Amino acid sequence: MKKEELYREFGAIDENLIEAAGHSGIEKKKKRISKKWVILVACLILYSSTSTVLLARGYYKNQNTEPYIRYLTAEDMELAPVTQYDAEKFLQALKSDNNEYVYIAINRLVECFNDPKQREKALKELQPLLANDNQKIADAAAFAIDILSQSYLSPYIHKLADGSMIFTLFNNYSDYGSQNVLWRIKDNVLEQYLSFSTPSMYITEIIPSPNQKLVAIVTCSNKSEFVQIINVEEGMFSPELVESARVKYGAQKQLDTWIRTDHENYSYANNIAWKDNDTLEFEGSLAYQNTEIIENVTVAYRFSKKAIEVNEISS
Questions:
Q1: Which of 18, 162, 205, 208 is 20 to 30 A from 65 via CA?
Q2: Could you tell me the end-to-end alpha-carbon distance of the chain, in angstroms, rounded to an integer?
């Protein structure tokens, strides 16, 4: 029923009410009027609900034009509950009209690397997406194809001295960085090498040493930054260096250094670079007393000696 018809019906009800006032059967009229009021209210609610649904559909259709994911949860990664990896599910998801599903499926298909048949099928299905109008989807398809075709030309792939390669998936999917999982290909086998727990929610940089034997991994949350050195071949790790520097410098300057239960440090690292094959250097912005005090320092960590040096930057 259109709004105009509802209002005409509403006007007719008013006239009937006036006419009924002078008759002894006014109670019956009131009952009939009450029924019409119920019908009127029900129609208005239906009209309003239908309009709301149409507006909502239009809104979500517009929202779906650009995949934007703040942080990937385990549930997001699966698209639907499964007990083991299912390449066919992600191949089907490539045909979805939901761009986020397509983007997730492209990245997850890299995980079928160890299955030659699924790898060939994925390569075939990914090819058309190279020309996708959405740049994020096109870039993800290019990276997945680079891995699955074993070309390894992407700058996001880091080749190490032992012949292995490390990389992340979902490269720069967030404003903060890439997925917080480190993947490795060694002897033509793909494995999930390392995943970082919160608050290291994103990988922002992977920086191999000059001889490619060590790798500095920079991770972050939306509040803090973290740096760690890994010897991938031997499976050896440094402590987290930003918090280590904060604790050491706090002791040197007799500053209260509280370690938060959520392990956020509210501190940052800049200009991260290898001084040589064993020593990583960076500038740190270290927070104390809930950021009331900010100390700017230089940090040098020598991996083989497990030695850290922290010095104040002269103003």
A1: 205
A2: 75
46 CB contacts (<8 Å, ≥6 apart)? none
134 inside domain: yes
Q: How far is CA 264 from CA 16, 54, 108, 203, 286, in A?
A: 71, 43, 29, 15, 12
**H or E segment at 266?**
none
User: What DSSP letter does each residue of 245-262 carry, written as one string?
Assistant: HHHHHHHHTT---PPPTT
Distance CA 11, CA 13 (A): 5
Q: What is the pLDDT of residues 198-220, one digit of tens each?
A: 999 999 999 999 999 999 999 99
Paired tokens of 22: 């002078």
The one-letter code for the residue type at 306 is: K
Cα separation, 235 vs 213, in Å, equals 11
Asked if residue 42 and residue 10 are part of one domain, the reply reads yes
Q: In 3D, which of 231, 230, 252 has the Cα closest to residue 241?
A: 230
Q: How far apart are CA 231 and CA 213, in angstroms?
A: 6
Look at the chain and report how many structural domains it folds into.
2
Give the number of C-alpha atoms closer than 13 A to the C-alpha of residue 155, restricted to the C-beta side.
Answer: 4
**pLDDT number for residue 269:** 98
Q: Do both 110 and 34 map to the same domain?
A: no
| Contact by Cβ (8 Å): 159, 212 | yes
Which domain range does residue 50 map to? 3-63
Of 154, 158, 164, nearest to 235 by C-alpha is 164
Cα 82 to Cα 282: distance, rounded to the nearest angstrom: 43
Lowest-confidence pick of 81-90, 210-219, 236-245, 272-281: 81-90
Q: Beta-carbon neighbour count of residue 279 at 10 Å?
A: 19
Full DSSP string of 88-114: HHHHHHTT-S-HHHHHHHHHHGGGGTT
Within-domain flag for 107:
yes
Q: How far from chain centre, in Å, is Cα 258?
A: 29
Other beta carbons less than 10 A from residue 134's beta carbon: 15
